[in-house]
Request: fold
Amino acid sequence: MSHYVTEPCIKCKYTDCVAVCPVDCFHEGANMLVIDEDECIDCGACVDECPVTAIFPEEDLPEKWQDYIEINREYAAKWPLINETKDALATADEFKDVTDKKDQIDPAPGEGS
Reply:
């Protein structure tokens, strides 16, 4: 099993989750994070750290966000590893409560750490 980052992360990219992760499973895109399911040890430490409730274990993943399993798989293979916290995006406060923003995923990689 793994955990997956979902829609609330888009255009926010808080990295509190990265700070508590005991393994290197987070990858950084331009405007969100994803989890490499092969590296995730399913510890759940990241779930409570996410200020926008964007991370779920597979068994608790809301039906409306099932496609984020594939999104995490695809981008974890393309985006650089992030294992240090960074400031949230400047758009975080504006977009933290916005819904239906999957079409705003930026496929560009982040800087990583």
About this structure: The mean pLDDT is 95. The first strand starts at residue 3 and ends at 5. The helical segments are 16-20, 45-49, 68-76, 92-95.
